[in-house]
Specification:
Layout lengths: L1 H18 L1 H11 L5 H26 L4 H30 L1
C-alpha cells in the first residue's frame, strides 16, 4: 500500500512540475525576487525528470517480490514520464536560449 501511494504521489508531483514548470518558475520569482528565473526553471525541470527516474529505480531496489506491480509501475513511469520530460526539457532549452 505504501509503495502504491509513493508511485502515485511521485508521478502526480513529477507531472505537475514537468507540465507547469514555467508557471511555477514565474511564481517562485514573484514570491522570492532573489531567485533568478533560469535557476528556478532549471530546478523545477530537473526535479521533475529526476522523480521520473528515481521512482522506477527505487521500486526495483525495494520491490523484489511483487514483479507485476513493478512492471506496471515502470510502464506507467515511462508512458507518463517520457512525454512530460521531453516537454519540460524542451521548455528548459528554450529558456536557456
Amino acid at each position: 500500500m505504501a509503495y502504491t501511494a509513493y508511485v502515485v504521489i511521485g508521478l502526480i508531483l513529477a507531472t505537475i512540475l514537468g507540465a507547469l514548470g514555467q508557471n511555477i518558475s514565474y511564481d517562485l520569482n514573484e514570491r522570492f525576487p532573489a531567485i533568478d528565473l533560469t535557476k528556478a526553471i532549471s530546478s523545477v525541470t530537473f526535479i521533475s525528470v529526476g522523480l521520473f527516474i528515481i521512482i522506477p529505480i527505487s521500486l526495483f531496489i525495494f520491490m523484489k517480490n511483487e514483479k507485476t506491480f513493478l512492471i506496471v509501475s515502470v510502464i506507467a513511469c515511462v508512458l507518463i514520464g517520457l512525454p512530460i520530460s521531453i516537454w519540460s526539457l524542451f521548455v528548459w532549452l528554450m529558456w536557456m536560449g
